[in-house]
Amino acid sequence: MSNTAPSEFNASVAEQNPDFLRTLNEFAVDLISIPNATDLFWYVARNVAGRLGFVDCVIYTADVETQELTQVAALGEKNPYGRTILNPLVIPFGVGITGKVALSRQPIIVDDLLNDANYIQDSQPARSEICVPLLSRGQLVGVIDSEHPDAHAFGPAELEILTTVAAMTSAKLELLDEADRSQQRYADLVKTHAKLSEEICSRKALEAELHDARRHEAVGQLTGRLAYDFNNLLSVISGNLELVEAYFKEPSSRRFLNEASLASQRATRLVSDLLVFAQRSKLTFSKTNMNDLVADLCGVSVVPHNVTLQLDLSPIDLVADTDVSAAKSAINAVISNGIEAMADGGTLTVSTDIVGRSTMSRLMLPRVLSPGVYVSVKVVDTGTGMTSDQIERVFDPFFSTKPASSGYGLGLSMVHGFMKQSGGAVVVSQNTPKGTILELFFPVQP
Ligand SMILES: Nc1ncnc2c1ncn2[C@@H]1O[C@H](COP(=O)(O)OP(=O)(O)OP(=O)(O)O)[C@@H](O)[C@H]1O
Ligand SMILES: [Mg+2]
């Protein structure tokens, strides 16, 4: 066995093997378009070693973790057809001639295998063998091995040729490795960018929610204070009106007094609605079967002939802790809005469900809610829908797109105030392709 270091390329190699330079030139050109390591190994085994006069060539890849070589491409006996290796050998580093080359990272030529104790016979017995390492950035990545049925088949010329092929193969492997890494870096970058965008979006959404919550809080406080004072003044006004009514019996005076009294009643109702929005109403909580409440309410709802009312109640009993009469008013206000938004007809679906028990359904809870279990009452209509601008203002008191005579724009403000005061929430979103979804979350526990 001779352990031979590669010598400088010399002209005599090219003279001895006229195909050498042409094959190497073609190899250099083809290398550019070879897309991956597997194609490269097969190309080298067949098109390079084969055309350079080697009757056999097997390429092994090295695994430095397991310290093993595995056959990955071959020319000759090991590969009679296609790109399949018959019984691919796995050789530990240090074992056999290929294993020795893997360990020493130096090429080896064995002139006569009959005299070499390291020889591991593969599919066919051979007399001589040449093996060179494949190195990438100083690391062993594999070996190229060739055997010959005759002794003394390999000399310095073959070593020169195979070492040059190995160097070119290693250079391409480095390029492929770099391409893989830059592709991975690009993929990582895309992933990081997507994650960052997602975080920015969710942060913006959170900031918007916080801004909305603060705005409602401020408006609520001011409204609450005004409504409270107004309520006191109205009590004085209506009390005095009642006293005056006792003194003025003649019809002309009664008419004026009646109008004053009606106006004072409307003002009292308005002020009490504002107190609901400002979360200052008096609530009485009790365990309430929400399926029954919704069914009763829908049973007495007046629905136009061109609107279909669908009930989709949860099969399990849903008990929430709420104020029955205020909960009915809130759901009713949402149903009325849905019906009013479907002047040309449509379908209104009212469904109930339990949310917050499983990890998945916890994700469906609005962020404003504290963690817990809630009964959801969802009202979906196929009406006009709302613009995102309208959605933003829908809970503001006195926001209405309806004619002045139809409503004050307090319906959803009251729903918002009541739901918040009772530890729940109301959420609005667009129904696709058209319509609106309003979902009310009632806490199961107080
Ligand atoms: N389901 C819905 N579809 C389309 N728009 C809606 C829907 N619900 C509410 N809106 C819009 O939100 C506005 C505010 O609703 P809200 O219930 O607070 O007041 P309103 O219905 O106008 O008057 P009120 O309820 O005081 O009689 C409505 O005028 C309407 O523009
Ligand atoms: Mg309304």
Automatic annotation (TrEMBL):
Which intervals hold domain Histidine kinase? 225-446
Q: Name one GO molecular function term.
A: phosphorelay sensor kinase activity
InterPro entries from the UniProt entry: GAF, GAF-like_dom_sf, HATPase_C_sf, HATPase_dom, His_kinase_dom, HisK_dim/P_dom, HisK_dim/P_sf, Sig_transdc_His_kin-like_C
The EC number of this protein is 2.7.13.3
The reaction(s) annotated as catalysed by this protein in its Swiss-Prot or TrEMBL entry are: ATP + protein L-histidine = ADP + protein N-phospho-L-histidine
**One family name in Pfam for this protein:** HATPase_c
SMART domains from the xrefs?
A: GAF, HATPase_c, HisKA
Which keywords belong to this entry?
ATP-binding, Kinase, Nucleotide-binding, Phosphoprotein, Transferase, Two-component regulatory system
- The protein's name is histidine kinase
Instruction: Look up and give the organism this protein is from.
Output: Marivita cryptomonadis
